C-alpha cells in the first residue's frame, strides 16, 4: 500500500534515519519503527481518507491529557518543523504522519501464568477505570474538535449487503437495544476502543504502557471492558472460557471500580457487548478485507466467525 519513497519522506519529516526503517504492523500496514539520533521511535501513516487532521489532533490532545494524569503512554515526537502532525498530500495515498517514542517493555504472554494472572487483570482494570473517570474532566477543561460518536465511522453507514440477512437483522436489533442504554457521565464517554493485551506493554518495573489510540470515540464504558474481555478470551480454550470470564471480570472490575463507578446494570451490558463484539468484529474485518492479499488463516477465521453468527452461538460456546 505504501510506496517506499513516501515512507522515507515521512521518516525525513521527523528527522529519522531512512536506513533504519522497518514495518512493524498496523491495520493498514502503516506502522514503522525507525531511529532518530540513536533513539528508537515509531512512525504512523494515516490515510486522510480514513481520518482527517482535526480528528488526529483531538486524539493527540486526549493522549497528552492522559499522560499528564499519570497514564503511561509513549512520548510524542515532534517533526523537524515542530509539528505533532505532518502531511503528505500526494497520490495514491495522501496521508497524515505522527510519531512517538518506542516504549521500553514487552508484550504480556498469555501462556505465562507469572504474567497472565489476576494481578495483571486487576491492574488492567484500574488503568481503564482511571481513563474512563478522566473522560468527563477532559471535556470540562478542554476545547477540542469532536470525536466520533459510537455509531459513526467503523462499520456504520457502510454497505453491508455482503452479509446474510440474518446477520444484518441481528446488527439492527443490537443497535436498537444499544440506543436504550443510559447515557451519562458515569456510563458514557471517551473510550480507547481497542484496549486489548496487544495494545499495551509491561515495563521492566511492571508498569502498563498503553499505545494505539487510533480508535478513540464516544461509547459506553462497558463496551471498552467487553473488548478487553473478548480479546482475552481468545487466549483460552473454548471449554474453559466460561470459567475464565468469571475470574477475569472479578479481577478486572476489582481494579476498575477503584477508579470509576458505573451505572447499575453494568454486568448485563458487558455480557451484551461481549456478544456484540463478535458481530462487530466479523463485519468490520469483512468490510476491509482484501481478498487478494488475505491469508488462508484469515479466510478460515472469518468463515468460523460467520458460522458462529449464523448458528446464533455465544462467544463462550464450546
UniProtKB/TrEMBL annotation:
It comes from the Bacteria. Residues 21-234 form the Aminoglycoside phosphotransferase domain. Belongs to the pseudomonas-type ThrB family. Pfam families: APH. One of its GO terms (molecular function) is homoserine kinase activity. This is Ser/Thr protein kinase RdoA involved in Cpx stress response, MazF antagonist. InterPro entries: Aminoglycoside_PTrfase, Kinase-like_dom_sf, Pseudomonas-type_ThrB. Keywords: Kinase, Transferase.
